[in-house]
Amino acid sequence: MKFAIYGAGGVGAYLGARLADADHDVHLVARGEHLDALREEGLTVESVHGDTHVDVPATDDPADIGVCDFVLVCVKSYDTADVARKLDPLLDADTGVVSFQNGVDNERWLAEEVGEEHVLGGVAYIFSTIAEPGVVEHTGGPARFVFGEWSREGVPGRSARAERLHDALSACEGVESVLADDVREELWRKFVLICAQAGTSAAGRLTVEQIRSTEETWSFYADLMREVVAVAAAEGVDLPDDTVDEWLDFVGDLEADATSSLHYDLTHGKRMELEALNGSVVRHADEVGVDAPLNRAVYALLKPHADERGRERAD
């Protein structure tokens, strides 16, 4: 099948390389020095699941690619709306546009531009990043990708199209593919974790070990999660009763110096995904009439820094 990977960073480039190794027709959309390196030297993935190098087309213009079977959107959430407006050259009637991004709003933003019939929601569980232009380093995580139809013929989750993508990803080395019956539940489940991890580590400039070893901070972290679970329930997404405990156990096993991408972006002067994380919790909470004071506090503390680095979409 033919794939466009829109956003060839840690997640997108990893998927693109694995799909190319499985003999799919892969095209990368990137920019800057990373794009230059991809064009000149190809893509190198250094992975705990095995290294690989692929030479695949790379561009900054979707019109160079043409119609695809699937477009995997792997950009930061603040670029989602802009990317959505550029997808038309990649689409025909059955093209699937799959979001593998942080947050619970990206699918809606994509659907506003391309139509719900194209959109699949997705969640990526992988620790990977651009180590240098043209080189992506995968350091851990299961490389598990969970996805499903956002809303197609009134039935989210499974479809023949989603099954085709599942088959393609399942055949890739170093990729665990999971086809979800209810992708909204999967999105909110991960959202519970990333809002706590990103919010606490960034607002406090803290590592996981500092968070875990301080009783008050660990309780704060857990309560951030519980707020997100409550908002999800009010939205009609009933997460399993053990969601918070399961994530606390998971975080208990993370490496001591782990932080978050939001922490990294804050401390390195980069644009931040705050609006798609704790900012989104606040907006959803207001819409459904649920109190979320801890997420509201995190958002208030970090918003001046996010604003300094450029406005994000916040609706």
Automatic annotation (TrEMBL):
Record flagged with keyword NADP: yes
Domain of life (superkingdom): Archaea
EC numbers for this chain: 1.1.1.169
Sequence ranges assigned to domain Ketopantoate reductase C-terminal in this UniProt record: 182-304
An example molecular function term from Gene Ontology annotations: 2-dehydropantoate 2-reductase activity
Pathway of action: Cofactor biosynthesis; coenzyme A biosynthesis
Keyword Oxidoreductase: yes
Annotated catalysed reactions: (R)-pantoate + NAD(+) = 2-dehydropantoate + NADH + H(+); (R)-pantoate + NADP(+) = 2-dehydropantoate + NADPH + H(+)
Record keywords: Coenzyme A biosynthesis, NADP, Oxidoreductase
Pfam family, one: ApbA
Residue ranges of domain Ketopantoate reductase N-terminal in the record: 4-151
SUPFAM superfamilies given in the database record: 6-phosphogluconate dehydrogenase C-terminal domain-like (SSF48179), NAD(P)-binding Rossmann-fold domains (SSF51735)
Entry's Gene Ontology BP terms: coenzyme A biosynthetic process
Residue runs in coiled coils: none
Role, per record: Catalyzes the NAD(P)H-dependent reduction of ketopantoate into pantoic acid. Catalyzes the NADPH-dependent reduction of ketopantoate into pantoic acid.
Sequence similarity: Belongs to the ketopantoate reductase family.
PANTHER family: 2-DEHYDROPANTOATE 2-REDUCTASE, PROBABLE 2-DEHYDROPANTOATE 2-REDUCTASE
Full protein name: 2-dehydropantoate 2-reductase
Source organism (scientific name): Halospeciosus flavus
Native organism taxonomy: Archaea, Methanobacteriati, Methanobacteriota, Stenosarchaea group, Halobacteria
